[in-house]
Amino acid sequence: MSMFDKIKSMLSGHEDTVRQGVDKAGDAFDDKTQGKYSGQVDSAQQKINEQLGSQAPPTSEESQPPQS
Questions:
Q1: pTM exceeding the 0.70 threshold for the entire prediction
Q2: Digitized pLDDT (tens) for each residue of the chain, 68 residues in all
Q3: Whole-angstrom Cα distance, residue 61 to residue 68?
C-alpha cells in the first residue's frame, strides 16, 4: 500500500472537511502572495479534489469572474 493510499483511507468519510481545509489554505496562500500564484493554487486545489473523488459543486465565489 502506497503512502497516498494510506492517507486516502484515513480521509475516507471526511472529504468535505478536507475540501474546506484545502480551499481555506489556498485562500490564505493567495492572500499572502497577493494572488500572484492564484492559477497554480487553483490547479493544485482542483487536483486534490479530483483525488478525493466526486467533486463538490462550485460555490458562488468560484462561479463569479475574478474582480480586480
A1: no
A2: 788 788 878 877 888 888 899 899 999 999 999 999 999 999 999 998 888 776 555 555 555 556 55
A3: 14
